[in-house]
Write a structure and sequence with these properties.
Shape: globular
Distance between the termini: 75 Å
Radius of gyration: 26 Å
Pfam family, one: GmrSD_N
Strand content: 5-15%
Number of strands: 5
Structural class: alpha/beta
Strand order of the largest sheet: 1-5-3-4-2
Number of helices: 17
Protein name: GmrSD restriction endonucleases N-terminal domain-containing protein
Largest sheet: 5 strands, mixed
InterPro entries: GmrSD_N (IPR004919)
């Protein structure tokens, strides 16, 4: 028992030694000037700015009313003389936009007279009060390395449920080579044309997630057990530093060329669609890729089954992540593309006999 207690003690202390921090108060005016001058930066593993006007306005209202604001988490890089935002990027940017007179307050429930107001519309007294309001910051010291900063980001955003699981995953490994590869694929002009995604979903990394799903399902469908987040995370971890870039890129580009040529609406339901259902993207992209890798001479008459009840049924969203449903929709597309060639080869073999 004593040995176990000693082991516990050492294990806890080992990790506590890696995370050192201090608590500091920064006036809003000071923190915004430093942000503007790039003395405070938001790293790649943070999400894009996604807060709505109402959410930003509610934060400003809370500050003006004197409510306490959740801590910001910064990392101090003394060599560069900058502070890196670990958590709180949305709050920081909201405050900055208001101070810069770029945010018009909307949807306020308490300070209703401030609806449709900008910072410059405030009485001078409250402008000064706002600028002098201190935001409390947890300042992580240099001893807290990049790995642990990402871990803090991961834990803060998982427990508070601010982010979608995919955002936490991509954010945690944002600086890794494989994630950079996924980003470049998601920026492919052909992909963006064939796979329309709303701006709101793009902010939540839907475009990146679909690319990741394409590669993960194409390579490891047999390993999928219905738990999407864990499956995608395992796939990312396997490919962080050692992945076949040439093979993956070739598969992705060949698939896009085929879809552009033989699927009139790309991955979407219609030419005017503003979004792409995940189930439809998975079925078409992975189905096409698997079929191309099996036989280059495919049945290109896709219109005869794209509008069929059968295809619509397998691409419905009910139990979309169930393994049997996923395999069914991917296999449906793959078999439709291979179908005529398979039958043709069987007939040739029979004649030869």
């Amino acid at each position: 028992m004593n040995k176990d207690l000693e082991k516990i003690h050492k294990e806890i202390e080992r990790y506590r030694e890696k995370i050192k921090y201090d608590t500091v108060d920064y006036p809003i005016e000071s923190i915004c000037r430093r942000f503007e001058n790039k003395k405070i930066i938001i790293p790649n593993y943070q999400r894009e700015f996604v807060w709505t006007i109402d959410k930003q306005s509610k934060l400003i209202e809370s500050i003006l009313m004197g409510f306490p604001i959740p801590f910001l988490f910064f990392y101090e890089d003394k060599d560069k003389g900058i502070l890196e935002v670990v958590d709180g990027a949305q709050r920081l940017q909201s405050v900055y936009f208001f101070l810069e007179n770029k945010l018009k307050l909307e949807g306020l429930k308490k300070l209703k007279s401030l609806n449709n107001c900008y910072f410059n519309d405030l009485p001078e007294k409250f402008k000064n009060k706002f600028e002098n309001t201190a935001l409390r910051v947890i300042l992580l010291e240099e001893k807290t390395n990049n790995e642990f900063r990402k871990e803090i980001f991961n834990r803060l955003n998982t427990t508070s449920q601010k982010l979608e699981p995919i955002e936490v995953l991509l954010g945690t490994y944002a600086d890794e080579e494989f994630i950079e590869f996924l980003k470049r694929c998601s920026e492919n002009e052909k992909y963006k044309k064939l796979c329309p995604i709303s701006l709101e979903k793009q902010k939540k990394k839907e475009n990146l997630e679909l690319v990741l799903r394409f590669f993960a399902y194409s390579d490891s469908l047999d390993e999928y057990d219905g738990k999407v987040t864990l499956f995608l995370e395992d796939y990312v971890k396997k490919n962080l530093r050692d992945f076949d870039r040439e093979r993956l890129l070739k598969n992705f580009e060949n698939m896009l060329v085929f879809v552009e040529k033989y699927f009139p609406n790309g991955f979407a339901k219609s030419k005017s669609a503003k979004s792409t259902p995940r189930t439809r993207f998975e079925a078409i992209s992975v189905g096409v890729n698997l079929a191309l890798n099996e036989n280059k001479n495919l049945n290109t008459n896709t219109e005869e089954w794209l509008e069929s009840k059968e295809f619509k049924k397998v691409t419905t969203t009910d139990s979309a992540n169930n393994k049997s449903k996923l395999v069914e929709r991917i296999t449906f597309v793959k078999n439709k593309l291979l179908g005529d060639n398979i039958q043709h080869e069987i007939r040739i073999q029979k004649k030869e006999k």
